[in-house]
Amino acid sequence: MPSADLTSSPEDFFTQTYDYLIIGGGTAGLVVASRLSANPDVRVGVIEAGDAGFDDPNFTNPGKISAMLHNPNNHYQVTVTREVILSAGTFESPKLLELSGIGEPEHLAYLGVPCRVPLPGVGTNLQEHPVSAVVYELADGVLSIEAILRDESLLKQHLQLLQEQHSGAFSGPVSLMGFIPYWPQVSAERLNETIVSVLQPHSDNATDDPDLVTFQHR
Asked: How far is Cα 89 from Cα 73, in angstroms, rounded to an integer?
């Protein structure tokens, strides 16, 4: 893929025709794009949400990545000659498929979307994973983001580390994250109570149509 196309504007990008179009970048989509681009005879396009953002501090500073969420998007049309590869995540990939008429025929008909490809399973079996945050206080002298923000000299030091070496406290959006299974920590009775407490509000509020709820929980 020519280097001039790597950071093309939306106007230039959508005037081209591509052999492969990858919707969604990230660690999955960009790897696919890189490997397809190794073949000089194919043209590969990648669409990611939002602008390029190379001069946007919210983009260049990983610690501010949350400010990039939920930005408004524009609508464009692109031409693909061979294949469209969806890599838009848990929610957007099935959504785009269903809006394109690919999915459970009965579900699409219910929503008024013409079925182009019957593919049961699209958009089903979605399971929510509850998340809990732990709040704690650190003893004086322990380095943390909060301590850095209160100390002007430390703040300048870590901003310089980020800009010059892409390191330091601001090189990541969070300080610590872990995944701990819930079920080994509680009794079977408590586990069932938790599941009911999580699912019931969503079943009550998500939709008044029991058929639609059934589709999404298959």
From this structure: 17
